[in-house]
C-alpha cells in the first residue's frame, strides 16, 4: 500500500498556510511545538534515585540553601546531582512521544533531538500533520493533509531563530556552564509552603528566564519567561528514569496565571541510533 505522506511539493503559489485561518493554526502549532522542546531540554539531566522509596532524597539545612545561592557553589552542586558526566558523554540522541491537551483539542507529537543542534518534531491534529526540522542554522517545515501533496518551506527570520535556540541539547542552567548565557542571581523563595532556589538566567540571546530549582533534588521545578506581552510558566512533574536519565512525563503551562495546555509523555528513549540525515530538509526543497 502506498504511503499517503510520500509526495513532496515545493511551495510557490497557493499553499496550505496562505489563508488567515490556516496561518493562525500554524502559529498555534508553533507555540505548542516550542513548549514540547522545552521538555526535551529539561529531560537531559541526571539525578540520584533512592531504590527503597523511589524518591529523590538529599538533606539541606538553611545554611546549605544559603550556600547554594552562590552561583559557583550552585553550579557545582547542580552538576554533581544532575549531570552524570558519563551519561552526558554517551547520550547522543533522545526521542519522546506524547500528546498536548489544550481545551477540547488533543495533538499527538513525536520529537527527536541529536547533539549538538539537530531537532525534528512531528505534530498531528487530525487530519493535519506538521513536521518541523532544525539542522544547524537551517529550519524547515512540512505540512501534510491525507491524500494530498505535502507542502514544504524554509523558515526564516525570528521564527527560525526561536527554533535554533530550542535545538540545543541541554537545559538553560547546563548551557551556562558550557558558556551559553549566564546566571544572573540565585535566591531562596517560597512556593506553596516549600522553599525553592529562584535562579535567574540570561540566555545567550539576551532573554531573561526564571527557573525554580528544588534544593532537595537539584532539578528544575518550573520555568517562567515572557512571551510577547504575556508571562508563561511551565511546571515539570512525574519524573521517570529512562536509560539512567530522568524524563518529566508531565508539563503544565500557564499563561498569565491561567492553564493554557498540558503536555503528557507516553514514551521516551535515548540513544536510538538516529542518523543526522533524518533532520535535514527534503533534498528538493528550495528557498522561497
In short:
Helices cover about 25% and strands about 40% of the residues. The protein has six helices and 14 strands.
Characterization of the model:
With 288 residues, the chain is α+β, with helices and mostly antiparallel strands. It has one domain: Lipoprotein localisation LolA/LolB/LppX (outer membrane lipoprotein receptor (LolB), chain A). It has six helices and 14 strands. It has helices at residues 20-43, 62-68, 71-82, 85-90, 157-166, 172-177, and strands at residues 8-10, 93-102, 105-114, 118-125, 128-135, 138-144, 150-154, 182-191, 194-202, 208-213, 220-227, 230-242, 245-255, 258-270. A hairpin with a 2-residue loop joins strand 13 (245-255) and strand 14.
Strand order of the largest sheet: 1-7-6-5-4-3-2-14-13-12-11-10-9-8
Query: What is the helix content?
Result: 10-25%
How many helical stretches?
Answer: 6
* CATH level 4 superfamily: Lipoprotein localisation LolA/LolB/LppX
Q: Any idea how many domains?
A: 1
List segments where confidence is low: pLDDT < 50 over at least 5 consecutive residues: 1-29, 46-59
CATH fold field value:
outer membrane lipoprotein receptor (LolB), chain A
Task: Sum up the overall morphology in one term.
Answer: globular
Broad CATH class: Mainly Beta
Distance linking N and C termini:
33 Å
Radius of gyration based on Cα positions: 20 Å
Number of strands: 14
List the secondary-structure elements in sequence, H or E: EHHHHEEEEEEHHEEEEEEE
Q: Which secondary-structure class do the elements indicate?
A: alpha+beta
Largest sheet: 14 strands, mixed
Tell me the fraction of residues in β-strands, as a range: 35-45%
Average residue-wise pLDDT: 78
- For the record, the CATH architecture stands as Clam
Amino acid at each position: 500500500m502506498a504511503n499517503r505522506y510520500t509526495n513532496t511539493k515545493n511551495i510557490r503559489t497557493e499553499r496550505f498556510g496562505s489563508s488567515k485561518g490556516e496561518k493562525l493554526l500554524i502559529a498555534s502549532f508553533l507555540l505548542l511545538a516550542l513548549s514540547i522542546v522545552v521538555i526535551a531540554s529539561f529531560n537531559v539531566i541526571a539525578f540520584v534515585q533512592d531504590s527503597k522509596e523511589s524518591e529523590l532524597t538529599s538533606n539541606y539545612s538553611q545554611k546549605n540553601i544559603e550556600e547554594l545561592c552562590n552561583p559557583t557553589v550552585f553550579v557545582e552542586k547542580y552538576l554533581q546531582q544532575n549531570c552524570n558526566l558519563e551519561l552526558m558523554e554517551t547520550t547522543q540522541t533522545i526521542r519522546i512521544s506524547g500528546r498536548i491537551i489544550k481545551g477540547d483539542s488533543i495533538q499527538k507529537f513525536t520529537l527527536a533531538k541529536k547533539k549538538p543542534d539537530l531537532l525534528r518534531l512531528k505534530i498531528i491534529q487530525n487530519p493535519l500533520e506538521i513536521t518541523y526540522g532544525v539542522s544547524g542554522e537551517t529550519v524547515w517545515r512540512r505540512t501534510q493533509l491525507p491524500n494530498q501533496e505535502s507542502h514544504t518551506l524554509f523558515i526564516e527570520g525570528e521564527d527560525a531563530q526561536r527554533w535554533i535556540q530550542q535545538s540545543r541539547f541541554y537545559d538553560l542552567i547546563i548551557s551556562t556552564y558550557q558558556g551559553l548565557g549566564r546566571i544572573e542571581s540565585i535566591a531562596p523563595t517560597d512556593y506553596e509552603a516549600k522553599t525553592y532556589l529562584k535562579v535567574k538566567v540570561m540566555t545567550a540571546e539576551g532573554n531573561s528566564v526564571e527557573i525554580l530549582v528544588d534544593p532537595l533534588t537539584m532539578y528544575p521545578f518550573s520555568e517562567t519567561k515572557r512571551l510577547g506581552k504575556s508571562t508563561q510558566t511551565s511546571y515539570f512533574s512525574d519524573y521517570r528514569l529512562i536509560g539512567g536519565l530522568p524524563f518529566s512525563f508531565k508539563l503544565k503551562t500557564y499563561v498569565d496565571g491561567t492553564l493554557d495546555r498540558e503536555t503528557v509523555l507516553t514514551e521516551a528513549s535515548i540513544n536510538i541510533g538516529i542518523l543526522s540525515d533524518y533532520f535535514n530538509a527534503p533534498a528538493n526543497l528550495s528557498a522561497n
